[in-house]
Amino acid sequence: MARSDQYILGHRDAEHDRLRRQGEALAADAEWLFDQVGPLDGRRVVEIGCGPRGFLDLLSRRVGPEGHVVGVERSEEAVEAARKLVADLGLTNVKVIPGDGRSTELPRESFDLATARLVLVNVPAPEEVVREAVALIRPGGRIAWHDADWGLNLCDPPLAEWDRVVELFGLYAEANGMDLFAGRSLPRLLRQAGVIDIESRLIVNAYEPGNPARAILRDFLGNLEGRFLEAGLADADELETLGDALARHIANPDTYVISHLFVQAWGGKPA
After folding, report:
1. How does residue 2 score in pLDDT terms, banded at 50, 70 and 90?
2. What SS3 state is found at 269?
3. C-alpha distances in angstroms, 158 versus 6, 8, 151, 182, 245?
4. What is the pLDDT of residue 235?
5. Is the separation of the CB atoms in 135 and 104 below 8 Å?
6. Mean predicted lDDT score pLDDT of the chain
7. pTM of this prediction exceeds 0.85
8. What was the pLDDT predicted at 15?
């Protein structure tokens, strides 16, 4: 049965901490992406699904004191965390509001740029999120997106428990109307929503020993253990066995960990 809490990775404190670390780890890729859409000085920008950090601090700097950034986030806990970040960093040009990425209730065609990171792969009906984002930007405005695709997410040497965890995520996603391969659909979804002049870039990372992202699949399992139990996809003993096996495999320096496939795409709304 599908859950009303539609973010696949949940909202426990550990997930918020991971998202904050993720923001730092992906900062260089984010900077590169925003370089592609041109200067943002004085612009109005909306970030869909900003979570506890997202692009907010980075966008604040790029739009400058005359610009404005609005972060939209469904989770009340993440909204509170993002607002605390904004206050702690003194980001006076940033506002975070609660809202659904499919229906933000923000004024149509009121932003110069809409953006999001790692949203589509984690929620049902990703095409609705993209359509909403495009509706928020003015004619001639820009959109820049960074999302993921589970088509990779590999390790060597292979591990049966690794494959079983990936299988569990696939089963859970299917039962809840989510697409773990949404990243590869991103250019098409943008085009179908009316975006033109679309360009894209693919990113794959190797997570070497010492890189916190090396444990990402184990972290994801920790986020979803309760939901897997609730859905009857696995029992507690199996989940404990899987988690222990992943932890040992990741700790072995001879294990080679390859990231998800990441897809960045950007384009414009016809003037």
Report:
1. very low
2. coil
3. 31, 25, 15, 25, 12
4. 98
5. no
6. 93
7. yes
8. 62
> How many Å is the Cα radius of gyration of the chain?
19
Domain ranges of the chain: 13-150+177-206+262-268
Name the residue type at position 102.
Answer: R
With tokens 């999120």, the residue in question is 129
Tokens of 54: 């997202």
| Alpha helices for 103-181 (secondary structure H) | 126-136, 160-175
Q: Which residue has the higher pLDDT, 26 or 111?
A: 111
**Superfamily for domain range 13-150+177-206+262-268:** Vaccinia Virus protein VP39 (3.40.50.150)
CA distances from 57 to 63, 170, 212 (A): 10, 33, 22
> How far, rounded to the nearest angstrom, does the alpha carbon of residue 71 sit from its chain's CA centroid?
13
Could you tell me which residue, 56 or 8, shows the higher pLDDT?
56
How confident is the model over 182-204, as pLDDT tens digits? 999 999 999 999 999 999 999 99
Is residue 167 classed as helix, strand or coil in its secondary structure?
A: helix
Token readout for 187 is 């250019």
Helix axis angle for 182-192 and 126-136, nearest 10°, is: 40
Which residues are bridge partners to 46 per DSSP? 70, 114
Exposed/middle/buried for 208, CB within 10 Å: 0-12, 13-18, 19+? exposed
Q: What is the mean pLDDT of residues 58-64?
A: 98
The residue to which tokens 């009857």 are assigned: 232
- Assigned token pair, 112: 């110069």
Pairing of β 68-73 and β 94-98: parallel
